Amino acid sequence: MEIKIKRIYNTPSASDGTRILIDRLWPRGLTKAQADLDHWLKELAPSSALRKWYNHEPLKYREFQQKYLAELSEHDSLESFLEFIRPFKTVTLVIAAKDAALSNAHVLQQAIIKRLGV
């Protein structure tokens, strides 16, 4: 299985495989047709409180990672998600954030890779 990350504002492609939006809020300025998503899983997004606290500030990233993973484990969201994506060959985690390396998508991607060994 391949786990990719892509900004929702970038053009969708066939190589994206299953496209899953993992943001709590719908991205500004896009229609559902333009987004070309297979799924929107809001429950995988950081809580509103965590998202607002983090505010994509690089110095808070390490702590954000820990808090976000704790949120996922509290509600078994990660385990449910892993079972959901198992059958797919390619999964693209779609986000609106400008910097994917400092986003919830990167944290989730690393957790998937660690848990599934992909």
What does it look like?
The protein is an alpha/beta fold and 118 residues long. The protein has one domain. Helices cover 40% and strands 15% of the residues. The chain is built from 5 helices and 4 strands, in the order E-E-H-E-H-H-H-E-H. It has helices at residues 32-35, 48-54, 61-74, 77-85, 104-116; strands at residues 2-7, 18-21, 39-40, 90-95. It has a 4-stranded parallel sheet, covered by helices on one side. It is globular and about 35 Å long. 20% of the residues are buried. The mean pLDDT is 93.
Q: Main β-sheet: number of strands, strand sense, barrel status? A: 4 strands, parallel
Helix content: 25-40%
Total helices: the number is 5
Unreliable residue stretches: none
- Rg calculated over all Cα atoms: 13 Å
In total, the number of strands is: 4
What string, H for helix and E for strand, traces the elements in order?
Answer: EEHEHHHEH
The end-to-end distance, rounded to whole angstroms, is 6 Å
| Helix and strand composition category | alpha/beta
Q: Sum up the overall morphology in one term.
A: globular
Order of neighbouring strands in the sheet with most strands: 1-4-2-3
> What is the count of distinct domains?
1
Mean pLDDT level:
93
Tell me what portion of residues adopts beta-strand conformation: 15-25%
